[in-house]
């Protein structure tokens, strides 16, 4: 009966709301409408000039500052994703606290009279781990993601209803700033199930939302063929050739306003790849040209913020596995610290031509920054020596389980077993490493292997009474885009082979999510540092009188993780083009601060220091990023 009522509602109501292409009804108070004559909010013409800010990537203390800077730039709308994986870290357990307090973010938008384009997913890409899908979906090896498979769609619909419930008080029809809601993201680059998109549309309609429902796809025919869904505005994501791309959209969606719902004004930052920056003057000219033609625009990103350890991985069926870095700076108009870059002022000159009233809004000041000099680490703790202190779950099995099967999302997983002495030399081969493995036998390091190692075999001499085999595996992030997203499980996925025979024997597995370091047993760093067994934790104290934003630099060596006063901040990596790591002032305190790192290799700790400016590799040149 409920479905029948919904069908009748859609049949009668849909042609006149959200995308009234067949009519010229401009709606009224509390509505947002796209039709053949234009885009209207509260029945009046509206020109969307938007910038993307992800509330979950920015500490709440900075939300107001970033939104005020958006408004002073001449923009009238903010666009934001919602990460399902962060809001529902465990199935049916939701989190809307801290930087996930989406209601507080929307309340500030309402107070500042900034319209909102709300992007709940369930898939968002966003260079986020698994594209924002929760890792626990992967506990079922038969699930078909981003589809109507009940194993995916049922939990997805639970999440969608929950996040829309949080947003509902801020719908335009409830006097709030949300004028548009996006469903899915770039779906035409992944699938072609039109009914799946229709079902997501219906979930939004069930809330009574009277704004615009839209999808966003790439800028070619093969990336736009799936989403011609009634009542859904089709929008464009692209980085260059704006006029050409919008002309293409006019052909497939004629007599309709067009919007670049993601103009890639910068790019995500990957390991082993110099930072890419756009030509400011050229892009400003392109923006001016399309705005003059009344096209609508969203800058992606206006302010990127930080992803932390939940950054995704770039990989396609034909390209290698390359993780994104913890920073989401993306060459945005405002950098990770809130500093206004030259691109901000160049683009502001353009936006004020089309929104001159915004010139009255003062531009908030840049943050104060400081350099606190060298960081002196005085204590250490071997990770393997602290297994029991770091383990959150232990399980025994005849086979090796994946991280997801161990009910774990992030961090490390440890496998151990006893091997009896064979009658012949022993060859051990690890199959399906995801993503990096340390192999020890009887406490001695035998090998380290990555997911792309050309061979993963070692020969071991086993004593008469046998010996213990230990394998520690790091999760370096899950693919966030492309057709390999379903291959995202972590750990040793193919098992261990002994002399060409599968080995299933009394495995003990430990979950090491590194969510709490309080039980670690610290020791003074020995004078002979060769005795330190890696991976290893290191601790330093930093005294500060007046906390300001700062940056940690790790030099040209090392790879690992960093915590500031117990807050897990980010990963660092010698192959990252971003050489510094931003520390917001709000994470520091007057007095003594604790800095902890987990170093995975054997870096020279004397390289680690606090500096005042960010530094990166831009097209092969090491430079201060301003």
Brief synopsis:
The chain is an alpha+beta fold.
Describe the structure.
By secondary structure, the protein is of the alpha+beta class. It contains ten helices and 36 strands. The strands form eight sheets. Strands 5-6-7-8-9-10-11-12 form an eight-stranded parallel beta barrel, surrounded by six helices. The protein has a six-stranded antiparallel β-sheet with strand order 27-16-28-33-30-31, with no helix packed on it. Strand 2 (32-35) and strand 3 (38-41) form a beta hairpin. The termini are far apart. The model is unreliable at 7-18 (pLDDT under 50).
- Which percent range describes the beta-strand content? 25-35%
**Separate helix tally:** 10
- Choose one word for the global shape: globular
- Binned, the helix content reads 10-25%
Strand order of the largest sheet: 5-6-7-8-9-10-11-12
What's the overall average pLDDT, rounded? 93
Tell me about the largest β-sheet.
Answer: 8 strands, parallel, barrel
SS-derived structural category: alpha+beta
């Amino acid at each position: 009966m409920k479905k029948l009522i919904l069908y009748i509602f859609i049949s009668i109501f849909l042609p006149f709301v959200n995308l009234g292409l067949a009519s010229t009804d401009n709606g009224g108070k509390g509505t947002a409408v796209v039709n053949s004559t234009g885009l209207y909010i509260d029945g009046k013409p509206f020109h969307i000039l938007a910038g993307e800010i992800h509330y979950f990537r920015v500490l709440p203390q900075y939300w107001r500052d970033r939104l005020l800077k958006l408004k002073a730039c001449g923009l009238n709308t903010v666009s934001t994703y919602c990460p399902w994986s962060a809001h529902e870290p465990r199935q049916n357990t939701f989190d809307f606290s801290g930087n996930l307090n989406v209601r507080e973010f929307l309340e500030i938008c309402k107070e500042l009279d900034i319209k909102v384009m709300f992007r709940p997913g369930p898939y968002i890409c966003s260079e986020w781990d698994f594209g924002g899908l929760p890792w626990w979906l992967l506990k079922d090896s038969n699930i078909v993601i981003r589809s109507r498979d009940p194993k995916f769609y049922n939990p997805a619909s639970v999440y969608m209803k929950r996040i829309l419930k949080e947003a509902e008080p801020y719908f335009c029809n409830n006097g709030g700033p949300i004028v548009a809601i996006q469903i899915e993201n770039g779906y035409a680059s992944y699938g072609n199930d039109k009914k799946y998109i229709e079902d997501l549309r219906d979930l939004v309609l069930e809330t009574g939302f009277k704004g615009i429902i839209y999808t966003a796809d790439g800028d070619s025919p093969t990336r736009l063929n799936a989403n011609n869904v009634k009542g859904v505005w089709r929008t464009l994501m692209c980085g260059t050739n704006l006029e050409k791309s919008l002309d293409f959209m006019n052909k497939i969606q004629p007599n309709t306003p067009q919007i670049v719902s993601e103009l890639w004004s910068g790019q995500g930052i990957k390991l082993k790849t110099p930072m890419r920056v756009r030509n400011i003057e050229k892009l400003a000219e392109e923006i001016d040209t399309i705005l003059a033609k009344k096209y609508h625009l969203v800058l992606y990103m206006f302010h990127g913020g930080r992803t932390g350890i939940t950054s995704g991985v770039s990989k396609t069926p034909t390209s290698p596995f390359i993780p994104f870095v913890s920073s989401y700076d993306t060459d945005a108009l405002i950098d990770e610290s809130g500093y206004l870059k030259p691109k901000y002022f160049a683009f502001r000159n353009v936006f004020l031509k089309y929104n001159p009233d915004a010139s009255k809004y003062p531009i908030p000041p840049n943050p104060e920054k400081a350099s606190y000099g060298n960081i002196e680490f005085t204590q250490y703790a071997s990770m393997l020596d602290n297994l029991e202190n770091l383990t959150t779950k232990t399980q025994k099995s005849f086979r090796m389980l994946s991280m997801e099967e161990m009910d774990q999302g992030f961090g490390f997983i440890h496998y151990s077993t006893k091997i009896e002495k064979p009658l012949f030399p022993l060859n051990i081969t690890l199959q399906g490493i995801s993503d990096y493995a340390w192999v020890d036998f009887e406490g001695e390091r035998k090998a380290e292997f990555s997911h792309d190692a050309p061979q993963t075999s070692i020969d071991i001499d086993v004593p008469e009474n046998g010996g213990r085999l230990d394998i520690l595996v790091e999760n370096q992030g899950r693919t966030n885009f492309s057709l390999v997203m379903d291959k995202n499980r972590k750990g040793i996925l193919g098992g261990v082979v002994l002399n060409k025979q599968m080995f299933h024997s009394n495995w003990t597995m430990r979950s090491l999510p590194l969510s709490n370091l309080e039980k670690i047993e610290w020791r003074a760093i020995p004078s002979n540092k060769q005795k330190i067994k890696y991976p290893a934790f290191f601790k330093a104290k930093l005294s500060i009188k007046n906390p300001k934003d700062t940056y940690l630099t790790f030099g040209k060596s090392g790879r690992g993780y960093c915590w500031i006063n117990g807050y897990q901040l980010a990963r660092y990596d010698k192959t990252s083009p971003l050489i510094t790591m931003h520390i917001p002032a709000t994470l520091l305190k007057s007095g003594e601060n604790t800095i902890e790192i987990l170093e995975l290799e054997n870096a020279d700790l004397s390289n680690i220091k606090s500096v005042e400016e960010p530094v990166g590799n831009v097209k092969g040149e090491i430079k201060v990023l301003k």
